[in-house]
């Protein structure tokens, strides 16, 4: 089964039937120039362990426009060797809706630009899919609120959107444990 088919038949009735939100950690790689943010790749990790990864058709040309992207992101793109990873933005948008369902809770690390890159797949902020929040929760802000403990080192590729999303989930889990450990006994 290829990457695009992995979640095609998944139904989200378990969470959505009871009105519960499932958590999703995500990361994007993007080109930004101070005026626009152009999506290169996106990785999403679901609370139940499923993953999603896609690259835009212009990922390689966008990386060529920035020395930083060439040095840090380009080598992690896999669309040339795995063409099914590369999808038009409209298809990525549709697949993410299918992947996260109607009532997702989004988390990212230093989330501001990642959130804009994700939301722009749907147009304006008011065009987000039904049931989606108009904000993203930030793992870095949670970290600061908990006294800014040292987060676990990332294992794997930094600046690969899926690897970064997996690490973001790991950091969130670390902070969740840290926050419970810091609570006073009642």
Structure, explained:
The chain has 186 residues and is an alpha/beta fold. The protein has one domain: Nucleotidyltransferase, domain 5 (2-Layer Sandwich). The protein is 35% helix and 18% strand. The protein is built from seven helices and five strands. A five-stranded mixed sheet has the order 3-2-1-4-5. Helix 5 links the parallel strand 4 and strand 5. The longest helix has 22 residues. It is globular, with a radius of gyration of 17 Å.
The low-confidence runs, each spanning 5 or more residues with pLDDT under 50, are: 1-18
**In CATH terms, what is the fold-level topology?**
Nucleotidyltransferase, domain 5
CA-CA gap between termini: 50 Å
**Helical residue percent?**
25-40%
What is the N-to-C order of secondary-structure elements (H for helix, E for strand)? HEEEHHHEHEHH
Largest sheet: 5 strands, mixed
CATH class: Alpha Beta
- At the fourth level of CATH, the homologous superfamily is Ribonuclease H-like superfamily/Ribonuclease H
Rg from Cα: 17 Å
Annotation field: number of helices: 7
Strand proportion, as a percent range, falls in: 15-25%
Query: Architecture, according to CATH?
Result: 2-Layer Sandwich
Number of domains: 1
Widest sheet: strand ordering: 3-2-1-4-5
Helix and strand composition category: alpha/beta
Q: Averaged pLDDT, please?
A: 88
């Amino acid at each position: 089964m290829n990457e695009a088919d992995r979640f095609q038949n998944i139904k989200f009735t378990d969470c959505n039937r009871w009105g519960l939100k499932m958590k999703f950690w995500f990361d994007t790689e993007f080109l930004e120039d101070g005026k626009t943010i152009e999506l290169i790749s996106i990785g999403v990790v679901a609370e139940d362990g499923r993953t999603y990864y896609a690259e835009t058709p212009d990922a390689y040309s966008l990386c060529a426009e920035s020395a930083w992207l060439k040095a840090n992101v380009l080598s992690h793109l896999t669309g040339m060797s795995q063409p099914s990873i590369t999808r038009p933005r409209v298809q990525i948008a549709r697949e993410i809706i299918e992947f996260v369902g109607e009532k997702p809770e989004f988390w990212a690390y230093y989330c501001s630009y990642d959130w804009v890159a994700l939301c722009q797949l749907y147009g304006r902020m008011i065009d987000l899919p039904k049931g989606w929040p108009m904000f993203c929760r930030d793992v870095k802000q949670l970290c600061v609120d908990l006294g800014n403990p040292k987060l676990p080192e990332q294992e794997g590729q930094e600046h690969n959107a899926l690897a970064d999303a997996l690490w973001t989930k790991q950091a969130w889990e670390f902070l969740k444990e840290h926050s419970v450990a810091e609570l006073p006994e009642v």
